[in-house]
Design brief:
By secondary structure, chain A is of the alpha/beta class. Chain A is built from 17 helices and 22 strands. Chain A folds into three domains: 233 residues, P-loop containing nucleotide triphosphate hydrolases (Rossmann fold, 3-Layer(aba) Sandwich), CATH 3.40.50.300; 173 residues, 3-Layer(aba) Sandwich (Rossmann fold); 61 residues, no CATH class. Helix content of chain A is 33%, strand content 24%. Chain B has one domain: ABC transporter involved in vitamin B12 uptake, BtuC (Orthogonal Bundle). In chain B, helix 3 packs parallel to helix 7.
């Protein structure tokens, strides 16, 4: 076994009374991909911030190739050969790929070393299959390409250890394969990689070894992830067994939402072509598909954010005429958007404000143009209790909550009004197992109560667990709809690529 | 070595203390300039204080000056809450002044005249503010630039009026005809200039606070400003909210002009506003966009303005210091705002 590239020994870091990390040991050998697992709040991000120099640890030491080092800034970390790809990219959108690479790198006599930069970029591209057009502005890159640029940036600066914080959360399944082959190629050349993810199947497919954190301590290590079950890893993370929710037989009732020949043309992105579907009371309909095949347009039309150019939609038997958020809500539709932080909530205002936002004009929260502050507060407090939303109170800034708690808040604000039909996009993206489990149980509860639910998602395993039927979208059409008995990952995958269904 | 670290929460006392710290920093920074001008720092600030807040007459003068800045401060605070970047309070004030002067010159019973002056002034200010808001909503024109440039348009239109049709044919001065005596706002304390408009300004602040904090329109303004996408998803007509905000903001700035015409100058001239519209931005920022904070912030700036004149007479420090203090206060406040989001931490033993 070679000497570790990086070793963290006895790292302890407290914030006030909260011990975010306690005596954590972690090491990565050259050529090794280490999975770092843990529920939200287990201390993964704090640990990586200590390694990357954003926080100074209260105790413990960091060794780089056997030598103790002090890392107090990201510059120190880079000098020690540590590169990090954050969940939110740090790129200058108006500058080109090459310019972003060269930021902060001194050239010769004050001039940018363009030729040198191009050569290095080409070399890195060749080595790991990370090709990028050097002259494209970052704003023209897809999310996957921006992530690739972040990785190249770290390698460009001589990183020997690369930390990736939930890199697959933003990627489509096809992009994930490309990322994984690049990471394997880097590891094959002796680089160390720390891979943070909630998706256990990815961790099992990619990593050589795992360190699992729970409540700031090392809860366990997994030496052979490929041959360890997801259930065993989940148990290490949560401290107890995680049973997938059981979906009983469904007894669907009448249609609660129908789309008939819905088409869109005007907006940017993929358009909808003659989409017809129906959701019945007490069933969960999944919408699968590779991202960018019209799911967003479908969610926007149903949510009343965009009006279609043709077609008819009904909610609980009533025809939707104006396609406004207020109209669809009034007809009994509950909506949970794909992007919690930008579309769902107002991060800078109190949580209570976000929880009443879509219904602020209704009699529950206002009368004659005047707010009912007591009612708003009481509603928020009630939901915080009912959904076990972890926060100091309804006046907490919404942005201070974790992703799982935000999703619970969004769920609470809709379910409190007993929707007849619920539309939700990417319901558990970025959530840890415990939070995802909670969300799934709520969906099944609602299904049992006779609510019709549409789940738009890319995670096929999740759809298979939840859904009674799964419709597959490809290039703006619904190519086929499978019942839960006939739906398998293989068949759905084939439909998603457009290979079947044109018959 | 020091470093900025993100704060997870900001204590309440900190938010309240912030403007006071910014003001203290401003006075310290500006004392260097006073010393450069060859005067005693404590003596000069002493004169400023006595002249602006030292006796009851001085206080009424400061309040008279604060009134227009309370209105423009409220105008800016409301607009900035919705992230409608109204830099045009100056032009809206001038439009309000012209419209109220026009109405005030028509003979009619005093009470009716004052009411109509206020309505006309508010409407004129609102109409001016509607221009950059409409351009932004319809054509995505940058509202900072359009509202700022509109100030010059309104100013020169006013000049054209008082150099042309309104010119005093008797004296030849570029001033408008005076409003009717009956339309002059009543003075509240004999022997001072404390007029009715000052009280209206002081009442307007809590009313606007109530509007922002306790009404659905205020809720929509706050949400639209913080996250228009979430607002739209939540069923708020973002464009409509921006236009309503602009109308409200412009009307408030217009009322600043009404007060100056009805309570102070009784006519319109080219220097009717010494930049009260721009001072409104400083006031709103010092108040952290809180309508209740606008009142003390405006009184502070008014005291600096009246005090600076007296200081200039007594110690020979140029009265321009008042502008420097205003500018420094704005910068100090902007820097201070950084510390609501970040804390400074000492990093031991730099490597």
């Amino acid at each position: 076994m070679p000497a570790p590239l990086i070793e963290m020994r006895g790292i302890t870091k407290s914030f006030g009374a909260v011990k975010a990390n306690e005596a954590v040991d972690l090491s990565v050998a050259p050529g090794e991909i280490l999975g770092l697992l843990g529920e939200n709040g287990a201390g993964k991000t704090t640990l990586m911030n200590v390694l990357f120099g954003a926080y100074a640890p209260d105790a413990g030491e960091i060794l780089v190739q056997g030598q103790p080092v002090r890392i107090t800034s990201s510059a120190d970390a880079l000098a020690a050969g540590i590169g990090m790809v954050h969940q939110h990219f740090h790129l200058a959108p108006r500058l080109t790929v090459l310019e972003n690479l060269l930021i902060g790198i001194p050239g010769k006599s004050g001039r940018i070393d363009r030729a040198g930069g191009l050569a290095r970029l080409a070399e890195i591209g060749r080595q790991h299959g990370l090709t990028l057009d050097p002259d494209l502005p970052v704003s023209a890159l897809s999310v996957g390409e921006q992530q690739r640029l972040e990785i190249v940036k770290a390698l460009f600066r001589g990183a020997r250890l690369l930390i990736l914080d939930e890199p697959t959360a933003v990627l489509a399944p096809s992009e994930v394969d490309g990322l994984f082959s690049a990471l394997r190629s880097m590891a094959a050349q002796g680089l160390g990689i720390i891979f943070i993810s909630h998706k256990l199947n990815e961790v099992r497919a990619l990593t050589h070894r795992c360190t699992v954190l729970r409540h700031g301590r090392v809860a366990g290590r997994v030496d052979d992830p490929a041959n360890t079950t997801s259930a065993a890893m989940a148990q290490l993370m949560c401290g107890h067994e995680i049973v997938p929710p059981a979906r009983g037989p469904s007894t669907p009732g009448a249609d609660v939402l129908t789309l008939d020949g819905i088409s869109t043309s005007k907006h940017a992105g993929t358009v909808l072509r003659d989409v017809s579907l129906a959701v019945r009371a007490g069933e969960i309909l999944g919408i699968a598909g590779v991202s960018g095949n019209g799911q967003r347009a479908l969610a926007e039309v149903i949510s009343g954010v965009r009006a279609p150019d043709a077609g008819r939609m009904t909610i609980a038997g009533q025809t939707v005429s104006r396609f406004s958020p207020r109209e669809v809500q009034a007809l009994g539709l509950g909506r949970i958007p794909e992007d919690r932080m930008t579309t769902g909530l107002v991060t800078n205002l109190p949580l209570a404000d976000s929880m009443v936002l879509p219904r602020i004009g209704t009699a529950a929260f206002s009368a004659k143009g005047l707010l009912k502050p007591d009612a708003i507060r009481a509603f928020a407090e009630e939901q915080i209790k009912a959904y076990d939303i972890r926060c100091p109170g309804p006046m907490t800034r919404a942005g201070a909550l974790s992703g799982g708690n935000l999703q619970k808040a969004l769920l609470a604000r809709e379910l409190a009004f007993d929707p007849k039909v619920l539309i939700v996009s990417q319901p558990t993206r970025g959530l840890d197992i415990g939070a995802a489990r909670f969300i799934h149980e709520k969906f099944l509860d609602m299904r049992a109560k006779g609510c019709g639910i549409i789940v738009i998602g890319e995670d096929l395993e999740e759809l298979l667990v939840l859904c009674d039927r799964i419709a597959v979208m490809y290039e703006g059409r619904i190519v086929d709809t499978l019942g839960s008995a006939e739906a398998t990952i293989a068949r759905l995958g084939l439909l998603m690529t457009g290979a079947e269904g044109h018959s | 070595m020091f470093r900025l670290e993100v704060r997870t929460s900001t204590p309440t006392w900190f938010n309240l203390a912030l403007p006071l710290v910014a003001i203290a920093a401003t006075l310290v920074l500006c004392s260097g300039l006073i010393a450069l001008a060859g005067a005693g720092v404590l003596e000069s600030y002493g004169v400023m204080f006595t002249a602006s807040l030292g006796d009851s007459y001085a206080i009424t003068e400061t309040l008279v000056r604060a009134a227009p800045m309370i209105f423009t401060g409220l105008a800016v605070a409301v607009a900035f809450r919705a992230k409608f970047w109204n830099i045009g309070a100056e032009g809206q004030l001038l439009a309000g002044a012209v419209a109220s002067c026009f109405v005030g010159a028509i003979p009619m019973p005093g009470a009716l005249a004052m009411l109509l002056m206020a309505l006309a002034g508010a409407a004129a200010g609102a109409a001016v503010a509607l221009v950059p808001a409409t351009l932004r909503v319809k054509f995505k024109v940058d509202d900072v630039v359009s509202s700022l440039l509109l100030n010059s348009v309104i100013y020169y239109a006013l000049m054209a009026l008082i150099e042309g049709p309104w010119k005093d044919s008797f004296s030849g001065y570029p001033i408008s005809p005076p409003i009717e005596d009956s339309a002059n706002f009543p003075v509240l304390i004999e022997g001072t200039r404390l007029h009715l408009g000052v009280i209206v300004a002081l009442i307007a602040a809590p009313l606007i606070w109530f509007l922002i904090a306790r009404t659905t329109l205020g809720f929509r303004i706050r949400v639209t400003g913080e996250n228009p996408e979430a607002a739209r998803y939540g069923g708020i007509h973002v464009e409509r909210v921006l236009l309503s905000t602009a109308l409200l903001s412009g009307a408030l700035a217009g009322l600043a002009g009404v007060g100056e015409v009805g309570g102070v100058h009784f006519q319109v001239m080219s220097d009717i506003s010494p930049g009260y519209g721009y001072s409104g931005i400083v006031v709103a920022m010092l108040a952290r966009l809180n309508p209740l904070g606008v009142v003390p912030a405006a009184i502070f700036l008014a005291a600096v303005m009246t005090g600076a004149e007296a200081m200039s007479r007594a110690t020979g420090v140029p009265a321009f210091l008042s502008d420097v203090i205003q500018g420094t206060a704005l910068l100090a406040m902007l820097v201070a705002l950084l510390f609501t989001a970040y804390r400074v931490r000492r990093v031991g033993a730099a490597t």
